[in-house]
Amino acid sequence: MKKCHKKEKKVKSNRFLPFSTPSISSEDIAAVTAVLKSGWITTGSKNAEFEKKFCEYTGCDNAIALSSATAGMHLILKAHGIGKGDKVITPSMTWVSTVNLITMAGATPVFADIDRDTLMINRKTVEKCFSEKVKMIIPVHFAGAPVDMDPLRDFADEHDIVLIEDAAHALGTLYRGKKTGSQGTCIFSFHPIKNITTGEGGMVCSDDDLIMEKIQRLKFHGLGIDSYDRTVQGRLPMAEVIEPGYKYNLPDILAALGISQLNRIEEFNKKRESLAHLYLELLRDIDEIIPLSIPEGYDVRHSWHLFIVRLDVDRAMMTRKKFMEALKENNIGTGLHFKAVHLHKYYKNNLIIPPDSLFNTEWNSKRILSLPLFPDMTPDDVHHVVNTIKKVLTK
Ligand SMILES: *Cc1c(COP(=O)(O)O)cnc(C)c1O
């Protein structure tokens, strides 16, 4: 018995544990295979079904599946006419896509600082960088926790500006008992590390009919109908460009994977949650490691997209780079979500940031890393990661 146990342990430490990997079931594979055999592989009935099920799950009025969340954000900015002279408030602690899109639209990104321990913007930090030219605010629900939306919604209403939620991390998240996506306008991502995946893909959810009508049109050349509608309704010869648009539709091969994955979102998130709570418990007595806080002051269901910690570099007497390399040498993968956008080369050279205005953002940008967290991980893996962290820190 003992011998057998030892052997298992040895195999385990030789296996590389990635920081994330998708959970693909035989049902997922069968769903994709069925589409491949069906004779219709691009946007069609599987997209319609995916959108309908997504509405049912999140409680949103209307959903449009797209080739990525970035595509969704692009279309939202376009549909709202964001352009030259406009400013858009968003955190710098985010994925680069939003800031790139704002910049490429000719508008100026304005960065609100974040709470040190949740990595999220709030009404106070938004007020600090607000000005006349601000047309839109894009908060990010970070790592699976929800932003405190009510004060931000009030602020947006008071100033008559648009509020768009980046919910790329937040499928299944609840804020004050309400699912993220059920109100307002949101983007979700189905990139392989996100809580469900379609390989690549995204969804825009909204209760704004006018904006969704525009997005529907802009996602497919500005024709206002996608290839599915054309075939079914035989409207191809009559299809006209209403305004020049893009090519951001999601193939049915991927939508079928999305439907199959969505069936398992609650199971995925429950596994993520129990692994995350185990991490929190085991990391409690490691002073050099500071996990994020769960937001306080409002009711939350966390979807644990990422398990982010900060390395106290002074206590550890080790740089984050060294720490991540040491974990890698021990067959443990880590991620970095994210290096603050304003510290990327282009934005360092092209944006003027008021000194000390992003103190918490920069503090975190130097210290954060993401530990392995994905549904197919086991509690043993979590123990292994934490033991390895202890080993690396005492060296
Ligand atoms: C992943 C991610 C996106 C972009 O999603 P894609 O589907 O890859 O375009 C946007 N915002 C945040 C915060 C993300 O993590």
Q: Considering DSSP H and I runs of 4 or more, what fraction of the residues is helical? A: 40-55%
Question: How many beta-strand segments?
Answer: 13
- List of distinct ligands in this structure: pyridoxal-5'-phosphate
The unreliable regions are 1-11
In words, what does this structure look like?
- The protein has 395 residues and is an alpha/beta fold.
- It has two domains: 237 residues, Aspartate Aminotransferase, domain 2 (3-Layer(aba) Sandwich); 130 residues, Aspartate Aminotransferase, domain 1 (Alpha-Beta Complex).
- It has 16 helices and 13 strands.
- It has a seven-stranded mixed beta sheet, with helices on both faces.
- β4, α7 and β5 form a beta-alpha-beta unit.
- The longest helix is centred in the C-terminal third of the chain and has 19 residues.
- The chain is globular.
- It starts with a helix and ends with a helix.
- The N terminus is likely disordered.
- It binds pyridoxal-5'-phosphate.
- Pyridoxal-5'-phosphate (PLP) binds next to α4.
